[in-house]
Amino acid sequence: MIIDVHNHITVKEHPFHLPQEEYLNAMDELGVDKMVILGKDYGKIGDRKNSNLPDEEVVSFVKAHPDRFIGFTAVHPDRGIKKNVERVERAVSDLGLRGIKLNPASGFYPNDERLYPVYEKAEELHIPITIHMGVKPPAEENRVKYCQPIYLDDVAVDFPDLTLIIAHAGYPWLDETILVGLYAQNVYADISTLNQVEEVMGCEVILPTLRRLKASLGVTRILFGSDGIFNLEKLIQAVKTADFLSESDKEKILWKNAEGIFSERCQSY
Predict the structure, then answer these.
(1) What domains appear along the chain, each with residue ranges and CATH number?
(2) pLDDT tens sequence across 82-119
(3) Are the C-beta atoms of 225 and 6 separated by less than 8 Å?
(4) HSE value, Cβ hemisphere, 13 Å, CA-based, for 157
């Protein structure tokens, strides 16, 4: 069994929009049972580029195969506290979405106090938050300075009951990911995109990252994620062939840890 905690769709009119059948075909071919479809709100950047993803499009995608997909909403602090809290409440209570995605590269630090009411709401609703950290998103106007995991430390400390998922393991700031999560059991790291980072960097990234996360945070806080169906095969293979991971370790990373986070939220609507 495999649960991919980090994947995306684009707005329907986007040139890179893929039909759902391509996701399902890739999942079936590679043994992926469930996939999280993350929301997108890049604030004014996304407004200009028409890259923000309405919750209704996520719901439409997920509801077509609720046994295979889990949907997240997204917020941006520039929208305002009231609007963001209302969006989260509606997304979960009315639309059946199961978490929140934050994209700090679009102009904010994750410890921005305008997000604290959102964190409070997420804690109240018992839903996880995935935060893009580390590698710079491949889009104009994004700024990598907002993506250092150290800025999540305040959030992890102030909201100890809130499940926080550091996307991309915060790479290349893996040390910061480890420092933030070392004594905070509510902090997880996913390994999405690390195969692409490996290609760009010209050095091993996936296995050294897995090895260090296992040694520091433990395998119970490592999550499998891809960040695109085109990344699935290489990342699955990396986990399955890592000689320093036991079969039990691999099961935890590939699906058991995610199942524990979502529990009933993995079920159908």
Answers:
(1) 3-266 (3.20.20.140)
(2) 999 999 999 999 999 999 999 999 999 999 999 999 99
(3) yes
(4) 8
